[in-house]
Every structure is written in C-alpha cells, then in structure tokens.
Design a protein that fits this description.
Blueprint: H1 2-8, H2 10-20, E1 21-26, E2 39-43, H3 50-53, E3 65-70, H4 76-83, H5 86-93, E4 96-99, H6 105-108, H7 110-117, E5 121-124, H8 142-150, E6 154-165, E7 168-175, H9 187-202
Parallel strand pairs: 1-7, 2-5, 2-6, 3-4, 3-5
Antiparallel strand pairs: 6-7
C-alpha cells in the first residue's frame, strides 16, 4: 500500500502544486544515494504539506518511505482532522507509524528500527511539531538516538518559504548531503550535528 500510494498521489499533488505552490528543489538528485538502501531522512517542518511536496521529485517513487507521526496535535484544525478520522486514514495510506508520549524512547523506536532493518526509509521531523516561525526549534533526541542505535546514514532536508506571489507560495526544498555516524556514537553529539546542518541549510 505504501509504494502504491506514492504513485497514485502524484497527479493530485502535481495539480495542487501548480495552483498554490512554486516549488524549487536544490540538489534535485539528493535522493539518489539512498535508493536501494535504508536511510533516515530528516527535515524542518513548516506545514502539513511538507511531505506531499517531496512527491514532486521524480526520485521519490524509488524510495520506500515510512513517516514518524504523532497522535496529539497543537493546531486545532489538525485535532479536528484527527478526531473526524481523516488523519488516521492519511496515516494508513502513506505509511505513517506513530509515537506515543510517555511510552518511552526505546519502545517508540522499535517500529523504525524494524523498518530500517528491512531496508526501508524512515522520515522524521526532529522538531516534533509544525513550526512556521522561520527559526529552527531544538531537535528532540529521538532521531539522533535512532542513528546511534543503527549506524544508518541520515539525509537532511530543509524547507524554506521565500515569498508568496498571489496565491502561489514559493517553497525551496534543499536536499542535503548524506551524514554518517558511527554506531554507538553519543546521541547528544549526533543531535547537535543534525540540528546545525539543517540550520546551515536554512541560512
């Protein structure tokens, strides 16, 4: 279902993007190094449409991506979409697994570790929630802990909203260079490096 949805959603995303977005990719081929191998993908999180816009990159359909999501939202409209069942359906269609506050880091990382072990790609927004302030929020330690546990490469991505022309929003999506960390490396050090890299990409 996850791979099928990658293909089926493209025409819809393409149509919506033409109407409302002007999307520009920097390092368009940045996904190529992780095709056919497991990887952790991270990005800042400016809006609910972030993950959908990545489907405009032709290499996206060569990946098998599972997103880390949450079941509690700060935005009222997201809470409404959750309780009306819309968000759970979207989660199912697009391969989203959820983390539960209070469950413990090790338990919440079980699902992504298993998926990485099967050669899948894991997409995480390390800020933990949507943030359109223009300033990067501190990263939560979960992504860095996952990288430390597995020793699997991390691909950083940045989203930057530049300006709006009429109804079309100019979005620059930068695919960064692969970052490698030794298995067992300090999660705190990894977290600092990941956060610094994305911040540099946004500058």
């Amino acid at each position: 279902m996850n791979r099928i949805s990658q293909y089926l959603v493209y025409p819809i995303v393409r149509f919506i993007s033409i109407l409302f977005f002007d999307v520009e990719f920097e390092n368009f081929d940045g996904f190529v190094p992780i095709i056919g191998k497991p990887a952790i993908i991270i990005a800042n999180h400016i809006s609910f449409y972030d993950s959908f816009l990545l489907r405009l990159n032709r290499h996206w359909t060569s990946l098998d991506v599972y997103f880390m999501g949450v079941t509690h939202f700060n935005a009222l409209y997201m809470r409404i979409l959750w309780y009306t069942g819309i968000v759970p359906v979207v989660f199912f269609l697009f391969g989203v697994f959820t983390v539960i506050p209070g469950r413990g880091l090790d338990k919440n990382l079980e699902a992504p570790r298993k998926l990485l072990g099967k050669g899948k790609h894991i997409f995480i927004f390390p800020e933990g929630s949507m943030n359109n302030t223009g300033k990067l929020k501190p990263f939560k330690i979960g992504t860095a802990t996952l990288a430390s546990m597995t020793g699997i490469s991390v691909l950083p991505i940045s989203y930057k909203k530049v300006f709006e022309v009429g109804k079309r929003r100019k979005i620059i999506i930068t695919l960064g260079e692969i970052m490698n960390f030794a298995q067992g490396m300090s999660p705190e050090i990894i977290n600092d490096q990941l956060e610094d890299r994305v911040r540099q990409m946004l500058a």
